[in-house]
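User: Structure tokens for this complex, please. No commentary.
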Amino acid sequence: MNRTYSISELAEEFDVTTRTLRFYEDKGILSPQRKGTARVYGERDKVRLRLALRGKRLGFSLDDCREIIEMYDPIAGNKVRQLRRLQDKIREHRQVLLGKREDIDATLKNMAEIEALCEQHLATNSNNSPDNNS
Amino acid sequence: MNRTYSISELAEEFDVTTRTLRFYEDKGILSPQRKGTARVYGERDKVRLRLALRGKRLGFSLDDCREIIEMYDPIAGNKVRQLRRLQDKIREHRQVLLGKREDIDATLKNMAEIEALCEQHLATNSNNSPDNNS
DNA sequence: TACTAGCTTGACGTTAACGTAAAGGTCAAT
DNA sequence: ATTGACCTTTACGTTAACGTCAAGCTAGTA
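Assistant:
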């Protein structure tokens, strides 16, 4: 096991282009092995790519994504200072995430309100002109 | 009441630049009144700006934001077709938002896991070398 | 009246996140 | 041996979302 993937295999699996994978490598997000000159991606790369794309969906920049992903790395040397800094980063990031979730919930609430108005209008309107499609 | 705002007042209140406000106008997000040539912003603009910035925080493009904001507009003519289309848009958008919320929750979970590891390491490590700050 | 503060419209510059084309290497199959 | 399917690097192009001048209008104040 511990399957490996060519660049086009990985690209297809995640529905991105090979250009994107090379670009993410430049950005320090991916770091595939090499077989000769060709890139060979493993599990670690898949995990990091998944995290990067998730970060992007939430509106983070690739630099942000890289920083976030680095939090997942084995805790470097277990040095107390590093651990404390990691804790701080986690708390910061959590606040950002909670903020985004509040934004989402507020938006969902708005959508529900609009939807209610919609159905209300549809109810009264369909009585007056059932097949109005002008 | 129904206060109005100059461009710099509104910019300061929302912590954006005047350039941004003019740009959003080009994008069809804001449409202030004019007093002579100067822009005069009202409540409607404030609401739309707030919605736009919220959308941006969630990773939507300005074009997306504009589309979303337009959902809030008084339902045009109450025509059945338009109402149905609005319903569809709302449902679509809701799915996107729910997806993002799942991403957030997954990330929060990850953060909690890392934090746990952190504290675990700190517990054992502080016994071995209480003031290790190298 | 001259000055300052704040407004306007261009218009070119910048950064992020890729797209896209060019030119060429490699390896298996025909 | 050449074709085709991949892979590589290099490098210029593109879009979104503004930043940053430049040049000029305008209203209130010293």
